[in-house]
Amino acid sequence: MKVVCYKIFPRFRPTQLSLLIASLFLGFSSHSLSDNIEFNTDILDINDRKNIDLSRFSNSGFILAGEYEMSVFINKQALPEQTVIIQTQEETNKSTVCITPDLIKQFGLRKSVIEKIVWQQQGKCIDTASMTGLEVRPDLATSALYISIPQAYLQYVDENWDAPAMWDNGIPGALFDYNFNGQTQSQKNGQRLMLNGNGTVGANLNAWRFRADWQSQPGRSQNNQSKTLAQQFDWSRYYAYRAIPGWEAKVSVGEDYLGSELFDSFSYAGVSVASDDSQLPPNLRGYAPEVTGIARTNALVIISQQGRVLKEVQVAAGPFRIQDIDNAVSGKLDVRVEEQDGTAQTFTIETSSIPYLTRPGRMRYKFAAGKSSQSRHQFKGPAFASGELSWGVSNGWSLFGGGVAAGNYNALVLGIGRDLYWLGALSFDITQSRAALPDIAEKLTGRSYRLSYSKNFEQYDSQITFAGYRFSERNFLSMNEYLETRKTGSRQQNSKELYSVTVNKQFRDLRLSTYFNYNHQTYWSLPDNDRYSANLSQYFDIGNLRNLSLSLSAYRTINNGSKDDGVFVSLSIPLGNNATLSYSAAQGRDGTNQRVNYYGRLDQRNSYQVGTGINSHGSTSNGSITHDGELAHLNANVSSQTGKSTTFGFNVRGGATATTKGAALHRSSNMGGTRLMIDTDNVANIPVSSGGLAVRSNRFGKLVSTDVNSYYRNSASLDLNNLPDNVEAERSVVQATLTEGAIGYRKFAVIAGEKAMAIIRLADGSYPPFGATVHNRKKQEVGIVSDSGNVYLTGIAAGESMTVKWAEKVQCSIALPQSLNPQDFTANLFLPCRRDGEI
């Protein structure tokens, strides 16, 4: 085969030259890797046609044997950079890749395929011929290994989900995440200062995640007669966990809350092994609880369980809906809505789950053992063991059951679930408990019955997320009730009946959506508790005004005989340029409140809101500004009630992550959660986008993105439109599928420095051959020599040293000047290239 080579103009950039040569000489896919290529050098316009080195292009795809650091792509899915072994067969002069056992594990192959693989060289490399359809192509130009595998060979795959073999446990490191809220209120009779904080401190080692949750509520109030100081800081939980992909499970050690589909949640210290729905493909995952309500002012919503803060969120006045609570949370949640004027509304919700169904042939399980606790870090309760199992018997039927054994308390549950297909899903279970209490002579034995139903009516754009009924006999005790009775000596909350229903309905033609939630809890010895919540929202157009929104929300809470009703109506008018004008009116136990607000954006990261209103106590005004910073999320707000009080508030949310690869400050979205560290090759100020706003690398060339999901395929990309002029990158996108809590690590090979034409000369006055390559200290290719030693170099930096390579080895080195001036780049740089020992 003969290829005609046209003259290469010297001002082409190296990347352009490489692409041109590749397209001319290497683009013959119909030939094998060993095909020889002949070059017609007569057409080259150079003085010395014998001084040419095109050996790197003489064999299509030929690569010298050795170990190379390469990124690996399996069906376009990126794996971490790793060492790739290239081998050369002397008989055929072919370059082949050694697919090692460590590499084959990352393919995500089916077990039946793995069993048929033939190994060579005493099990060091696979025989690629034993996998029909497997294609392996190394590419030195991009430092990548491209592997194509027939889809039939792979485990279950999803558009955004990868098989466990492709999961990444990340690198060792430490983290600190925080969320601080502050508020100071000045009144005529004194001043009140409140601070809330919570977060997570942790460390990662291989697959293990070590965590400690903290929360703090220091505060101060002062009036004309007295001063009150309060300070509370507590490590609310110490624990460690790791994923066990082969079991589709998660093991946890330390302080935890029993996460159960069948039993109430309670705190304990011990160990648990449980099926982890988050490790399953998205369509196999379970239900996560949500919290809804209405805030009268800019408020702080605190969601806690048995004293442990799960989430603190600042919300604007009006309805709120918090849906990003961990789906592992179960049982009752305490919700506190702290308004800016110091008042608060509290209520409890039940995080009921959908019917306990399991896919045919699969099993879901949860086992836990340890010592229950009655207060934080004080484990005075009995030792216990619990377990539950759900088995998909056939296509539509599931059997499930479980038990709790804790000395003087025992409980057993049995149930059955049925997928009714177009009618929904239904499950029924019975729980029997038996408890012996110190102050009661006879043992208490009782039963609890539960019926659960869920249905998504797609043809009607409706969904019943959960509808359930539970009845408990007077002598029935859940484990949590038993522990509380054992602690206090009396039965305070003896549950009787629980109704729970959540319904969504969409009217797409009318651009109308509805939402309704109802919880009704009765007790044998206490007043009933009720919680109603409803929302109606509609979008419409008026003339040139588009997408106006009208919303009506209402709630009623009855807690221990105390009633709290509220109604909220709002009209939102988009004005263009990301600005919105809104009117709202609220009616509650504190009277009527009407407000007009204006919301606008200064830029992609900064937004503001101003408003004024009137209520039964007088006129009010408020304002807030939000900054989505690269290092933290910041919010500052102020509100004033004429002649009565002025309130200032703030929120700061962020974190810090340190690893063996580097450290960076960053925003934080999930305390102690999964994150991805991006290395821009020690080059600062490189913009990278990962799941949200672009973030620039710090002075050490590191940044951390927390906008990533566990067990999902996440990607990060260079913002090519905003790259500095003196920066180039070999690739612009990296991907990672990270296990829960991992600190992922990906690196962009970045070339930074000035660009200029240069002339390279050897000590004897000659010049490197045509086709020789220039490499920087990072072994990145920064130029290709053309005729008469001319080369267009990138990544030029003062004091940098470079090497020139031909005949497959380094021949000489270049030392750039210790200082470079702008005029140095107006003409060709003269760069001597010296071999070892030359002066």
TrEMBL record:
Belongs to the fimbrial export usher family. Residues 760-815 form the PapC-like C-terminal domain. NCBIfam families: PRK15284.1. InterPro entries: Fimb_usher, Fimbrial_membr_usher_CS, FimD_plug_dom, PapC-like_C, PapC-like_C_sf, PapC_N, PapC_N_sf. Residues 1-34 form the signal peptide. The keyword Signal applies. Its main location: membrane. It is a multi-pass membrane protein. It comes from Candidatus Pantoea symbiotica. Keywords: Cell outer membrane, Fimbrium biogenesis, Membrane, Signal, Transmembrane, Transmembrane beta strand, Transport. This is Outer membrane usher protein FimD/PapC.
